[in-house]
Amino acid sequence: MPGRPPRHRLYRRSVPLAAAAVLAASLLAGSAQADDPTPADAALTADLNALLADSRLANAQTGVEVLDAASGQVLYAHQPQALLTPASTMKTVTSTAALDLLGADYRFSTEVRTTGTRYGSTLVGDLVLRGGGDPSLLVKDLDDLATQVAASGVTTVTGRVLADGSRYDSTPLGPGWAWDDEPYSYSPQISGLTVANDSEYMMDTVQVTVAPGAAGEAAKVTLNPAEAPMAFTGSVATGAAGSGSSVGVDRKRGSNELALSGSIAAGAAPVTSWVTVENPSTYAGRVFAGALARHGVQVVRGDVQAATGKESSQPLVSHQSQTLAELIVPMLKISNNGIAEHLTKEIGKVKGGRGDWATGVNQVQAFLKANGLSTPAGRQVDGSGLSRYDLITPAKMADLLRIVQGKPWFDAWYNALPVAGNPQRMVGGTLAARMRGTKAENNVHAKSGSMGGVDNLIGYATAPDGRRLVFAVMVNDFAGTSPRPLLDAIAVRLATGPAAAPAGTAQQRVKSLTAPTSGDGQDTYTGTRWEDCEAVAHC
Fold first, then answer.
1. Which of 91, 345, 349, 439 is catalytic?
2. Largest Cα–Cα distance in the chain?
3. Considering 88, 245, 273, 387, which one is annotated as catalytic?
4. Which of 95, 136, 313, 335 is catalytic?
5. Domain range summary for the chain, segments of one domain joined by +
6. Which one, 51, 104, 301, 364, has least CB within 10 Å?
7. Is pTM beyond 0.70 here?
8. Catalytic site includes residue 121
9. 335 annotated active-site
10. In which residue ranges is the amino acid composition biased (Polar residues) (predicted)?
11. Known active-site residue 88
12. What's the mean per-residue pLDDT of the chain?
């Protein structure tokens, strides 16, 4: 069952010595065959070999596979069966499984329900905000629900607002997620009821904005939404004009206490930080309660409490999310981790009866098996790839991308992938600043994935002759200079075809492909924060 692997038995196997020798010989033969296929394109083989000989990959683990998307013919392979950390390329697995198992038209529903009895405009009982797992529920949507409650004629609620996140289990963070990532927006807590305050659905976060006052005074701090249950310690000073800014907003682990520090220059632009919130369901309940008050619905007891999920209640009003086909756009374009994890738990709830990671991942693995992708087993414990326990091979990634081309939802999924070099946020996504000015621009559709020592790119490139190619490039265990230009160069080479000087050496042919392109540093390591900071707006 997926989860934290036993540390001392992770790679042990009890195999008789003779059997181990046979197995080793078989694996070596298979590896050699896969890593050295008969070249379908000698120039491509020479060019990619030259790229992979770069010193930036000298001590790294690298796996590459390139396929003809129509025939499945292997055009190039280098360690395609190596088990490597996928980071956010795992979202390709989760999103395709969700589309197949839940359907492209699937929607999430959030309900407001009532307990007790209604007498005219008075509800003698509680209002229950029941989460349906919607990863895209916005502050505006909760305001709309409050509008509907008021429009139904309810003006007084004698009880409380109960926040019900019980659709999913009570484990908020995935197996193997780093504890020091917890305050940051790319590592939200997962609940059956959560709220986002922006159109990119960065759930379970609050915007903390620090604006300067007069020099020598404390800076002004505001929250959006204002109902977020944050408490402050410390302060940010306002320095002299031009003195620079060093604002610190740090959430204490396990609480909603924010430690403020540093200074901001008088007259400087405000500084906004995105911080996660403990207990996302009651956070959403507080935002809803605030909306009720604004719309003239008085909740007499005034407090927000967690529901048990077992309350006897009746439906009052509801909100429907966008379709799954629409929700995978922000999930893939900007690498939204929260959406991926909600889809994983929703798959578990709908197909396996339990809204938890283990059940969801088991269903995803069943999807892979049903499509002939069960070996090698690899390991998956979450939906976003935020965990370092996840392992998958480049060959399986490439085969997945080849197989899903025949699915009825493929066009929607393909268009949801980031498009190289396209500057529009919800087109280019995490590849908006990469491969610009090359044949890959507006050609390559691919998902990136990165964390400390990991950089991956898997997707599709259209060759000059019109053939669609599938590629998976995975680099693990590097330190120092980022190998990202090499990943991009492989995609550019596929989109470009043989370089203009076929008589030159492979090194000469690929030299122009490895020049740095804009955006190469977007995943720069910043201490403890390095997981999909390619979605730089919130990292």
1. 91
2. 87
3. 88
4. 335
5. 32-104+325-538, 109-171+280-321, 205-276
6. 301
7. yes
8. no
9. yes
10. 509-526
11. yes
12. 88
